[in-house]
Write a structure and sequence with these properties.
Layout: H1 3-15, H2 29-59, E1 61-65, E2 76-84, E3 89-102, E4 107-120, E5 128-135, E6 144-149
Antiparallel strand pairs: 1-2, 2-3, 3-4, 4-5, 5-6
């Protein structure tokens, strides 16, 4: 083969468009970052669990309270406490939320759910839910308990 044919073959190859395109690189960066973030959050939660258990053992309860409901101490946002009775032992978890709110009437009902995670118990269903309804005349007066329902609101 002569040099002219090799050069002409090379110029033909350069002038022809490539028919096989390279596929685009998949975008896995965002998914990988999200996965790593969730794994890191899980890892820190796992590492901080003994600290929460020591705090629970020392104080007997972990409590987060509402700000905008009547009697926030009686209706915690989250309450985790130890149950140490003769027949029952375990954890008690109490949560509450505003089920009914009517600002025009000055009425609010707070539903509270209590669940137990017992590793030693005397039997029967221990979980309960109840509803407390409060009313007040205006924003300056205190809330008054109107009625307590033994079930959900």
């Amino acid at each position: 083969m002569s040099e002219t044919t090799v050069q002409s073959d090379q110029t033909e190859l350069k002038s022809q468009p490539q028919s096989v395109a390279t596929p685009p690189r998949p975008r896995r960066g965002t998914v990988r970052r999200l996965g790593c973030g969730l794994a890191l959050l899980f890892w820190f939660t796992l590492l901080l669990t003994p600290c929460a258990l020591f705090y629970l053992a020392a104080n007997g309860e972990i409590r987060l309270e509402h700000r905008d409901i009547p009697q926030p101490h009686a209706h915690p946002l989250l309450l985790v406490s130890l149950v140490s009775e003769a027949e029952n032992r375990g954890l008690r978890m109490e949560t509450s939320w505003i089920a009914v709110a009517d600002p025009l009437e000055g009425m609010v009902c707070v539903e509270t759910a209590v669940q137990f995670l017992l590793w030693q118990y005397s039997g029967g269903n221990q979980n309960v839910s109840f509803c407390d309804c409060y009313t007040r005349q205006d924003a300056e007066t205190n809330w008054e308990l109107v009625r307590t329902y033994g079930d959900a609101c």
